[in-house]
Structure formats: C-alpha cells, structure tokens
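Handout, page 2. Input:
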Amino acid sequence: MRHIAIIGSGPAGYYTAEACQKTFGDDVRVDIIDRMPVPFGLIRSGVAPDHQAIKGVSRRYEAVALTDNVRFVGHVSVGQDISIAELGELYDAVVLATGAPADRPLGVPGDDLPGVIGSAAFVGWYNGHPDFAGLAPPLDGPGAVVVGHGNVALDVARILAKTGAEFDGSDIVSHALQGLGRHRIDTVTLLGRRGPHQIAMTPKELGELGDLTRATAVVDTADLPPLAEDATLDPGQRKAVAHLRAFAAHPGDKPIRVVFDFFAMPVAVEGDGKVERVIVERTALDKDGHAHGTGETYAIPAGLVVSCIGYRTPPIPGVPYDEALGRFANVDGRIAPGLYAVGWARRGPTGTIGTNRPDGFRIAEQIAADLPGDSGKQGRPALDALLAARKVDVVTFRDWQRIEAAEIAAARDGAPREKFVGVEEMMAARDGV
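Output:
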C-alpha cells in the first residue's frame, strides 16, 4: 500500500489524487490536507462568482473525494498543526499543491498606501475567502485603476462595472454585493505595459465587457496595430483583438467607462494618507517585444488600485524555495526524496485549471517510479492519531457537505449559495449550530 499526502485541495490537488487512483488502483490511500474547512481552493475563492459554469468542475473533484481511497482532511494547517518533516515520516510521498495565493507586490513608490490592493485579496473579498472577508476596499470613486491585461484584471473590471441585477445566479457574497451596489466609481482604467497584440485575455472573457448594462469598454484606435498584422496571431488571440477593434469602432455612451490604457505602466501611487492618483509612464516596445519607459508621464485619478500582475506560492518552513520564481524549488516536480510539487506550486502561476490535470498525472508517474514497493509507512491512521493528540478539529468531506447544505439553504433568491466567510461560521454549520 502506498500512502500519499497532498497539501492543498484545489484543482492541482484533486487532479493529482485522481491520477494516483488511476496509477495505483486500490493500492493507494490519499489524504488531501487543507488549512480551510472547505475544499476546492481556487474554484471556490478564485474563479469569478459570475462564472458558475467554470465552478462546475468541482463536481468532478467531489466524485474523487467520495471514493474509498481518497480523503479530505480540512482545517489542518501544515507548518502549524503538523510539519512537512512529520508528514514525510508518515507518508510515502508528500505532494505540495498549495497553488500561488499570494500577490506579487506592485513594486512602485506608494504601493503601501491604503487603497492599493492585490488581486488575490480583492478577488478573495468578493468571493468570501475568510482571509479577505473584512477587506472593505474603497469604492467611493470616482476612478479605479486595475494594473494588468490578463483575465484576472478583466474579472476585477467586470465585477466593478456590473449592476446588482447582473449578479443574479452568481455566488458573490452579500458583503461584496452590498459594497459594490453603493460604489461611485465611474471609470475603471486597465493599465498594460504592452499593446493589444500582447494581451493575455481570452476572447470569451473579453467579449463579456461588450454586454454590460451600465458600462462600456473604451479602446483608442491609435493604440491598435494595422489590421493586416492580426494575421500573425494565433486564432484565440485574433478573436480577442477583434473584440478590442469592435470596442474602438463602436464607443458606447454608458455611465461607467472601462478604459484600456495600452503602452502604460505605473511608476508611483500618490495621495495624502490614501490612494488619490496613479502616476503612469508611457512605454514603447523594442524589437524583441519588451516594454521600456519613454519618460512621458501623466496622472490618473483613482481611489482604488488593484494590482493584477501575478502571484507567488507562500514558502513553507523546511521546503526549498525559489525566490526569483516565487514557487518551490523543484526539478520536474521533484523537490527532495519523497517530496513533490504540482500545479502552480511547481511551475508558477501559469496555465488554466485544466492544465493541472496532466501535471497531476506526471507527478503520479514520478511517484510510481520512485516508490516501487510498500515502504511500511502508516499514513492515514498515524496522521489521525497525531492530530487527535494535538486536539486538531479535523473537517471531513462529509462535514463539508453539511457546510455546503447550510450555505445552499441560506442563499438569497436566484443565488446557488451564500458562502460562510468565517472559519468559525463554517465550523458551526458543520456542527449544526
């Protein structure tokens, strides 16, 4: 019997558990450990609340979780309740699937002013993650600056621009829905260092901006390259740029403007005790497509700055870490004998949710190659005994189903659930309190 511990219950964790089932069959026991009492990681707290179809992938993870040889071990903090070294003594393999939930700093003067928020924190706020439920971002306007030209930046801009009615059917949490309903932001500026051909936005998400009730997307035709150059793009990028061209050709007249500011990078955030403006420098591209400043600067009024420039995996004591790349130091997923990394914890914040599936199978194959036979380690029963001795209040998947049922029962009209935004609330729901 192989005993495998996976740290993190998001897509990378569950795809790896599924891969271990297919690789080892009945000869494996997998424990998926998470510090939260609720599973699914990025699906629950990262995917936009108005993208319910994407969240549906959690049903696949639930099917894995309900099998006999995979178990969810929630409300257990690795590094606090138990160490990586201790897990290594109990399990044949320990797989780090912790994702990259920490924001990269904006890295300009003034980025510590109140009102500068990383996208992980802002997204966590409107998705009800317990770490960020009390964020209270400044939404009194008149402007907001979103730094980045990727899908996360699009999510943030779209959430800021939507009406309350446009959130029908979503699982946005009530505190965010109420806060956004009172906001007075009339301009959301999307800053990107490079041009339309270099955006990391997918066509579907970009197209959603064209369907908003009270907001219009604004693109300056002068920023668009000659139409003939679109032929050099791959089909997906070509479709995305076609949306930008349509926005430029048909400017709308709605109360909120979502402005695409290309060839622009923030160089400072200014204000008297809070964010009041962003200083931006114009950029140009060199022959290799890298952006560099031109020396021309201007100011954008803003009370809120959301930085969507990437993520980092938080270090874990005792695990080699690559500071430059913001992930665990590894070679093709191997960190040390018996210790592996998968998903964003392995490769950094790149790829989609689905990218984690082949990544999980690759790690399962490596574990199989490294563990030819039974090592005699105890795995699950030894973990249970240790956590019980330390009085750790573990949450099982069945417990999570009780929490979920309570969230569904508490949903406002038209919403799939009302998430609990505090760990104590989650634990009370588990206990039927």
